[in-house]
Amino acid sequence: MSKSITFKVQPGGTLHGEVRVPGDKSISHRSIMLGSLADGTTHVTGFLEAEDALATLQAFKDMGVVIEGPENGQVTIHGVGKHGLKAPARDLYLGNSGTSMRLLSGLLSGQAFDSVLTGDKSLSGRPMKRVTEPLAAMGADIKTTEQGTAPLRIFGRAGQLKGIDYTMPMASAQVKSCLLLAGMYAQGKTSVTEPAPTRDHTERMLAGFAYPVKREGNKVIITADGQLKATDIDVPSDISSAAFFLVGASIAPGSDVLLKHVGINPTRTGVVDILKLMGANIEILNQREVGGEPVADLHVVYSPLKGIDIPEALVPLAIDEFPVLFVAAACAEGQTRLTGAEELRVKESDRIQVMADGLQILGVSAEPTADGMIIQGGTIGGGEVISHGDHRIAMSFAIAALKASKSITIHDCENVNTSFPGFKILAQQLGLNIAEEIL
Ligand code: S3P
Question: Per-residue pLDDT tens for 44-59?
Fold first, then answer.
């Protein structure tokens, strides 16, 4: 049996100080993937040493890539070139990581070997047809369970994939990236059209590795005519991890926090825009560009929040931040309404149901809907909630304690290590009264 971690968080407190949260998860995954396929040696700094990104790293080691590190966020990848991956001797186990599984399914469809992708219980329940169907249209051969879930058995079709023009039915950076990676091995042109802008780290990093990729409006186009040239990557801090403290400092009177070196790619900053619409006091300081990604320091000072109707256009730009935004809504004056976010139901957990259940236990009026939630702001009580193995749910309820009247106990917090190792220690440094029980 693996260990079980419970967070116990005492009510109240303020957040104060300066921190650098760990590296961006999306960019860390992609640095390993593209670094492995490049010609030459890629040095990565600021790499996220957390289970999800390490699952990607291990998968590439299993496919014969020599990777040194990570050590203090530094990774050296000895690229094998676009056609240099080797058949793995075992199934590739990707843990909790949807990004690893969906992006790898595209990349592995065009290889000269077969592979099997597996994951933990949560990942094995997540929908994979969103990638296997368009990949099949390109000529890929992937077997899933009857429900369209992992394990994915991929029969490599080197030289046989054909480019398609695909319009995604949902706004998904994982689906877009999967098809772009498959497109690097397909005959002709592959284009992916997105219904709304989603994170564009794959496109930016491909360009950083000198691989031709074109954007025309909401369409991204790639072909197999290109090679990746090794480069150095400085991974900024993850705005999705910074989000916990953006909300924490916004709801706890007297708080004043500086979050250093945070990635502020405009496809990721929905959380800042939504909090500002709610009345948050967030300043974006010292803006700069690091390795093709915009970076800044975020200064957040307590400010009373008010409820809003969240603009649907911001939903894909804040897709991972809704658990903690629901906590902000619970502390705001008036009603907050989220719509157009049905994707939340198929994340690491059903984030609409799990957050509504937990907020109700804490005495908050939270009504789940098919595609969002309606929350009446007010007071937060205390009690015991379950994260259902979802890292962002666990951290969100820990932050809620800043405004709770009694302590909050959160069960099932092991998976915080998938995205934010050291959360407890950083949160303590800033002033959250959080303790951990390991059973
Ligand atoms: C990610 C894309 C998003 C996000 C996930 C990471 C990525 O998923 O929720 O945490 O790195 O491409 P979808 O593309 O499924 O929305």
Answer: 999 999 999 999 999 9
